[in-house]
Every structure is written in C-alpha cells, then in structure tokens.
Design goal:
About 0% of the residues lie in helices and about 55% in strands. It is mainly beta. Strand 4 (about 35-40) and strand 5 form a beta hairpin. It is globular.
Amino acid sequence: MLVLAAGIAVVSAPTIATATMVYVAPPAKGSSTSWVMLANDNGTNAVKVVPGTAASISPDGARLAYQVWSPKQDNPTSNVRDLASGATAVLTGTCQPGVLPWSPDSTLLACATETANAKGFVTGNGLGLAQIPASLEGVSSIPVGNYIPAPGNAVAYGVAFSPDSTQIAFSLMKFGSRAAAGTLYVAPVANATARTAVLARAAAPVWSTSGIAAMQSTNVTVTFNGARTPMLHTQIWTISPDLSSKKQLTHYKASGLMAGPGPVAWSPSGNMVFGFIGGQDHLGMATFRVPGGAMTTLFSSASGSGSLQTAVAVSADGKRLLYTAGSEDTPAAIKTTSLTGRGTRTLVPRALTVSVTPNWNG
C-alpha cells in the first residue's frame, strides 16, 4: 500500500494479505514472454509470478488462475496456482483463451469450451466448470467438467455466479443460430438441466446482491454510407435478486454503427450499473442509475476510431472505477477514474489483462 509520511512515499511489496490486483504485462523488447504480475491495489511494486497470457485472482486473494498460450498451441494451457505456497495444478480439458471467472467463494472456475469436427470446423461452444480443492498441495491436475456440453450448443458473452456461489447465469442457444443472442438462464451449479429461463435474447450477465444486470440484443438493419448494414442494438435489463421480476433499465437510442449499452458491474450500494456503450471498432464507458436508467457518459470515442475504454471493476468504497484504455492493436493502460469528480490516474501504463478482488480500493 502507498503510505505518505513527511513527504516521502513508502511502498511495500504486495503480500497474500494485501494483494488485490493481478495483471499481465506484455513482453519486454526483445522477448516473447508475457508475465503475470501481482500488485498492490494502486498497481505499485508489482512482482513477477509466472509467465502467462491471461490471469484472474480469486475473490479471497489466495489463488491465481492463468493461461499460457504459444503460437504452437491450438489452445492455451490453463492453471491454478496457490499464491502462498506456489503449488500449481493444470486444468484438464480444453478451455478457450480468456480470463477465467471465479465464483465469489473462490471454489469454482468457469471457462468456455469448444468442439470441432475432423476438418477443423467448430461444432459448438460449451461451458466448463472446475471445482478447486481447498489445498493444491500434491494436486497435479483438476478436471474441467462439461457443465454445458459444446457440441450443438452456443454459450457466449460471459457467465456470472450468484453471490452465494450456488447458481450460475449463462446465455445459451443452438449453435449456428442467427438469433441476436441466446436465452439467459439461471441454473444450480450442481445441475445444469435444472435451468430456468430469465430473459430472452440476453447475455453478459453481472450478478450481485442487487440482482442480475444483463444485455438484451435485437437484430436491426441500418443505413451506413448508403448501404443497408445488419447491426445489433442493445439495452440493459435488470432482474430482481429472487429472479421473480425483470425490467428494462436503459432506453438508449442507437444510430448508425452504434450498438448500445451493456453492463460490467454493479455499484456496492446497488444504485448504479457501470457499463459500456459499444459500436463499430470503439468502446466507451458510462454509468446507469438504478432505477430509471439515467445515463452519465464517462468516456466516449468516435465510431471506427479503434479506441477502447473498458470498465473492469468498482472500488470497494464505490468511489472509483477501474478500467483499461487502449486500442485493438496495442496493450492497454490500467487506469482509475473518480466517481466523485476528482479525475483519472494511470496505475499501469501497459497491460494485456487485469483482474482485482472485491476488496480492491485503488
């Protein structure tokens, strides 16, 4: 943590008790290796942990899920590491590239799975779950179960665990469907077939004690440069904590190649959803008041600019938003912006991915 005394900044190295941030640093000049870094909540005094291409820290701050992927591999190798002991286990199964989401109680990991036929054509996208044991000592591998088998299915656009880690929300449709999005389901983690449909044409769920926020999509056709172009328009919906009611939160009027809003996180008090405004080759950030959906734009960029501002998490005290700022072709900076009008800060100038615990307060 950063401590100021007599005008001198004293920075201590992150420990298992204080570390709340993990990010992946891009390869240094002349190297092809990217590194998973453990840092204090303000990004200071980062230390190398392992080589990796994507990483997420468990909510309790004790474990690290990370992937290593080289051009010679069809799929990345996924691992779980105990940050205190260094004990590491491989996730057996084919997890697709990406940051692996943890359950709030730090006992489950989810990952996207995929199948292909003999000619290499994809035949489906599924959802895998891995049960992480209390200790990794002596554990060499952890199986990834086929929660939603991949063949013939399409699970996409993220998943979310319930606050008590007993349920999971996911979007599912038939593989190859031309629907705008699948149906958003909620199911017990112990039984995928006991699922309940909660919202049509929806994906990207974010779940907190305030309920679920999700993105609903509609296929539309717009005129761009004189040509009729297919496009998705989106709105954010909220679903009550007991899943008994749902309500459209936003009424965004998309135009041109603007798509619309999607959720990323709830505020700690539940009075706001933080999210993005997406479009062709650009991504901006905004807040949406709950209830009512009043939007405040935090950052925006022109369609086609290639500028991407991506919200990641809200600080535990609800005063700052962690986000990344970059483009599709370059590593992004990890930044924070004040939600009380005190400007932005750059925590890490270049990173590939970033993950924080719920206690992050940078």
